[in-house]
Design goal:
7 helices; 67% helix
Length: 147
């Protein structure tokens, strides 16, 4: 005969969360939490990797020119797209960069354009429609040879 359990023990045992499915299998809530933690960790690693790439660009042979261009981009307004395109087109030092560095520079330019648009109450991206003239970012992408 089984021993009688005190009422409080019985309630605690019944209230304990049970794993869904087979024994040892994680419940959906725990699996979702684990996935969220993994995603957060990956995002943190990605941001650190991007910061490292930007720092390498700033510490590279064209760091002073990149900083000067970045200062301009931080201060530019909505009407400064043609000026930005002209500055990039006139920068001979950009053509001396390797393909990866030009891609990193394009990433920086895209980020600065998106931040400037948001500062002015616009959505960060404004991809053109077929038939529209190319936007500043698209023109710069062509100049940098990043297809």
């Amino acid at each position: 005969m089984a021993a009688l359990q005190p009422h409080a023990e019985h309630r605690q045992r019944r209230a304990a969360p049970r794993a869904a499915g087979r024994p040892g299998q994680m419940s959906l809530g725990l699996a979702a939490e684990k996935k969220l933690r993994e995603d957060e960790q990956l995002s943190k690693q990605y941001r650190a990797w991007k910061r490292g790439k930007l720092q390498a660009l700033l510490d590279g042979p064209h760091g002073a020119q990149v900083r000067e261009l970045d200062r301009f981009m931080k201060a530019m307004g909505l009407a400064d797209g043609p000026v930005l395109v002209a500055r990039v087109a006139a920068a001979e030092w950009i053509q001396g960069m390797d393909r990866n560095a030009r891609h990193d520079l394009l990433s920086l330019i895209g980020r600065r354009i998106a931040l400037m648009r948001e500062r002015n109450g616009l959505p960060p991206f404004n991809d053109g429609v077929v038939g529209d003239p190319p936007r500043a970012f698209e023109q710069i992408k062509g100049i940098l040879g990043c297809r």
